[in-house]
Specification:
homodimer; 325 residues; alpha+beta; Beta-lactamase; eight-stranded antiparallel beta sheet; two-stranded antiparallel sheet; globular; Asparaginase_II (chains A, B); Asparaginase (chains A, B)
């Protein structure tokens, strides 16, 4: 097992224009797969090995549902979320825990402030510090704990890579991505982080999104996310705006420049920004979705990324590829 | 005048290791010049045209001193700063304005929160919103206003590119960088933003740092910055740590991945991270300084950039180049 080079084959994905210069350029990899899972378009290397970070959450949720987690709607969307830590997000997480006879004290994810500045302000103004509840992965961790309760597994060691819950996540990841899990480390939140390939990640999202009309675990995840996009992200988040704009879209952002999205027809896209920046992610996702057949007008607002001087646009972030590029 | 391509010739500068994978890679350009201004080392293209952003502030300050600004010490360091908005920074800015018979109301830089989260918290807890005073460039703007007063120039239009102050900044930039200013736009703070070349930026810093023992405007800037590194950045900022660690170093960070630093012998370095990320800047600056003769042990702590999983290091950001690479 050799160590892959994430830079090999990377291509420019987006340019940052300020005034009449290109100030910065983001390289990376993009893949677009059809409903049959075959690669339709690629920029860079579709087979690149990546840490999918939080973009794997819908897959983790499929594993949880397969082992007894019994939630739906906004509750399930929160399990798949990197939430902004707004008050209604926290209420749902508390409800998930209470439903399993658990409390915030059972969460083992890394304490952090809410992602949204206003939510962080409110949390601190209430006298709180960084907490597991407010960290953006708390819905996933609540779901993991609730799954352990349903399956009769121990909860104190649910983050151990050898725990049956984490082994179930590996199995679901291999099944949905069609790729082996060759590397494991620790994610920011403390959960095991599994490697996959970019095309494998896209295929998983295509499978999940296409299942929306059936009763499978994947279908339950797809319906929850597509129906409750605010719970998957939050106010002003582009992941929320994309799902609100495209009916049936199942999209998830991940740290260090990862994004994946599946369409109801089973087509899907995944991208990795080589430098890990979130800045070009929305623009690049919109360009990839256009290649997958989404009307660009639907996602133009979700993708808009102006570059400001004195508070006014003096440039913008533009994709290097797409149907019109 | 053709539009240059900032991506042309860019090379990997730093890799982000998480677990046993390279998660992300930052490309860009680095130049190291000797005391004579000649290029000693380069990674990527030393002649690349960049928006220097806030790294040009020491040069802007030289222009101000040349037209009557009469400040020194921490006051002058603040004029060269992208400060974190901590209380003592704000006090210095208020003092600069008062010394010129002006107030916060005369500042025209874009209102913003303090850069430092704790300072932003304190500012908001006092009932304030985003303000020109707390925006990281307020020292520069106070210096520009004070210069206008000293020179007998109007203050209401000091941000106009045709204002004599801004024309003086262009002249100082051309003189110190040895490169023409071929592009102009608006910086985030509202001041005119002048293009330069990476090697020109390095030469300007070498000239400024080498002047520290003379009475010139450049020498005054060098002494102020090297003696008051906290005022140039703030608590926990790497620009502050580098200057505190290396006697006589004159360093300045800039938005979108720019960094420049000059040494007392006139040697200097400048770098542009192609993707604009601040993440690899300290690591890349340390590697460049090592090529310029700085003992790596001096700056190891300033450059340390761990990658965390569950709050503990699971990787790090490492430069791809340097004396040992």
């Amino acid at each position: 097992m050799s160590v892959p080079d994430v830079a090999a084959g990377a291509r420019p994905l987006a340019r940052v224009h300020r005034g009449d210069l290109v100030e910065s350029v983001h390289l990376g990899h993009v893949v677009v797969v059809g409903p049959d899972g075959a690669v339709r378009h690629a920029v860079g290397d579709p087979d690149v090995t990546v840490w999918p970070r939080s973009s794997l959450k819908p897959v983790q949720a499929v594993a949880m549902l397969g082992h007894g987690l019994d939630v739906a709607g906004a509750d399930l969307a929160l399990v798949c979320a990197s939430h902004s830590g707004e008050r209604a997000h926290l209420d749902v997480v508390r409800g998930l825990l209470a439903g399993a006879g658990l409390t915030e004290a059972d969460l083992q994810n890394t304490p952090d402030w809410p992602l949204a500045p206003d939510a962080a302000w409110e949390w601190r103004a209430q006298g709180h510090g960084p907490a597991s509840l407010t960290q953006n992965c708390s819905g996933k961790h609540a779901g993991m704990l609730a799954t352990c309760r349903a399956a009769g597994w121990s909860t104190h060691d649910y983050l151990d890579p050898t725990h049956p819950l984490q082994q179930a996540v590996v199995a679901a990841t291999v099944e949905l991505t069609g790729a082996p899990v060759e590397h494991v480390t620790v994610d920011g939140c403390g959960a095991p982080l599994l490697s996959t390939t970019l095309v494998g990640l896209a295929r998983a999202f295509g499978t999940v999104a296409a299942a929306a009309r059936d009763g499978s675990a994947a279908g339950r995840v797809a319906r929850a996310m597509a129906t409750h996009p605010w719970h998957v992200g939050g106010t002003g988040r582009d992941v929320t705006a994309f799902m609100a704009a495209v009916p049936g879209l199942v999209a998830k952002d991940g740290a260090d420049g990862v994004y994946a999205a599946g369409l109801p027809d089973g087509g899907a896209v995944a991208l990795k920004v080589l430098d890990g920046s979130g800045r070009p992610r929305a623009v690049v996702l919109a360009a990839a979705l256009a290649l997958a057949g989404v009307d660009p007008a639907l996602v133009a607002e979700a993708a808009r990324t102006p570059v400001l001087g004195h508070g006014r646009p003096v440039g913008e972030v533009r994709a290097t590829f797409g149907p019109d590029a």
